[in-house]
Amino acid sequence: MITLLAAALWRLGYLIDSKTRLAPKKNSAFTTPLLGIGSLLAGGAGKTPYAAFWAQKLKSQGLSIAILCKNTGDENLWYSKKGFEVFTGNRFELCKKLDGKYDVIISDDGLEDRRLSHAFWVCLTWGERAESVRDIIPHGNCRSLWKDHPEIVCVKTCAMDWEEKDADIIFSMELDLPKNSEIVAIAGIARSQRFFAGLERNYRVVKKIDCPDHFDISKKTEQALKLGLPVVITEKNAIRLPESILANKNVVVCGLTLTHRAQASACNL
Prior knowledge:
Elements: H1 2-19, E1 34-38, H2 47-59, E2 65-69, H3 75-81, E3 85-88, H4 91-98, E4 104-108, E5 119-125, E6 152-160, E7 169-174, E8 182-187, H5 192-202, E9 204-210, H6 218-225, E10 231-234, H7 235-238, H8 243-246, E11 251-260
Parallel strand pairs: 1-4, 1-5, 2-3, 2-4, 5-6, 6-7, 8-9, 8-10, 10-11
Antiparallel strand pairs: 7-11
């Protein structure tokens, strides 16, 4: 009952915010195309790797790309390490600042910001309902409902490679360790259960250390290394680790790749 009430309050705040601070602005014309990668889920949808997928694809075609993301968390550091030009802060103001200076701007998240009315919005979904207040955080997993977003042009279904689903985007975990190895797993990401589930398919996970999203796992990693086993972490969490920890042979970074199945798509992207 308490979580349902909290979800209702979140919903009320969301509706007020969308009609005031984040409402569309008049006379806001932009010349640079904006590709928005969003999700109704409150984190863990794969927006960052998918945004990077398109950034690299467009960059390989000779186009200049700017990526917009929030100024908290690990995404900006991750993009920078990958060699992308990344900008953080108010996405609408950044669009005004960068307009005409790049061939394409990609926004990692920002679906809730209706001021970005010129965006081509792609929404990643893992089958979440997002139909009633019961699906809204903290009662559910979503920030908003499907009916809130008529601006979504394209919906992409997602799945992990071990799931028997006909999805548009298939995510795969890459880990350079012998199968059935004993490991310690640490995750400071949203939807960490997917990370742990993937590891448990091929390895004996002696200990799972689940931390909040964007958590600095440095101390947790140092403590886990004392067990003398490989400590497996996500690529995203590795961004914040000092080189002194990353240099340890028992620290193993698990990569994440994706396969974009264009033939399964219901939209032209």
